[in-house]
Fold this protein.
Amino acid sequence: MKPKIDKSVLDGRAFAGNMGDRIIAADGDVGVARPFIGENGKTYVTINGEAVQAYNTEATLRLDAWKAIDTAIIKIAKERLKLVAELNSRGLTFRVPNGMGTTILQSETVGDINDAVVSMDGLRTAAGDRPIFDSGILPLPLTHYDFHFSARQILSSRNSGSPIDTTMAELAARQVAEKLEKAAIGIDSYAYGSGTVYGLINYPSVLTQTLTTPTGLNGTTTVTEILEMRTSSQGANHFGPWMIFSSPNWDQFLDNDFSTAKGDGTLRERILKIGGITGIQTLDFMTDYDLVMVQMTSNVIRMVNGLDMTTIQWDTNGGMQKNFKVMTIQVPQLRKDQDDQTGIVYGSV
């Protein structure tokens, strides 16, 4: 990308001062905390997707160094975010504009209304009632991890012509991605004010199912119990489609023969023949012999995204240390109706 000067984007302001001041001055656009050196040797930042010259702000990294860091972070995030990636790939997301300036999301559950009217002439008056709404609060915390380079490390990389070492960026991204995944599973939770971030296994409204400890001989039992989980979801007025998320302990049984009968295939193949089940995904951080059946619709679960995973930079120690923070605002939102019903069934031994 060849930088271009667009003073109108800056609105007459020169972004200077510390990282926090620049972000505030840019109305929460973190691009101002990612200064880079352009081909002409001048400093630029990105505002509203536009590369603009930043006055009174000195950059340390060239654009290719930022690209190397971003590439490393995205690569690691894809490796660790299995549940989050599944939700994103299905479009089960909600974008919060200006996520840096928004600390909570107010959400609503909705009650049902009366049935439609059937008549021959359409003259019967329908009830015309309005749904009842109940509001709730979802915190939107930052998930982040820091790393740093010394000025000498950056200078050495520049003089040698070798790309900057992204090992620390990868480690930081791994920590952030794993924290996001654990939050979505429900291993971790976060409370702020009157709201709490829940995941699949710690959501208070989740339906439950007792499972039998798997062995190489009880594939039929497992299928029966998964059918019971589907029935529980249907009983709560959630009719699919469903995904099954499993702990790694299930892999040896899911990929083993379903039965001793020839041609029955694996247990995984047998489960995928159940109507409404669209896939089975192993989640690395799920433990024991847990299985979770989830209706993959936005009224049951979605990821609220206020800031894609990104990296910002600031200086300390007179500029001799270049600090970086990998951060994101991504929060799982599990949802229920006013009858406290949801399409999530948590099975455990």
Summary: The chain is about 25% helix and 30% strand. The longest helix spans residues 167-185. Residues 1-59 form one domain.
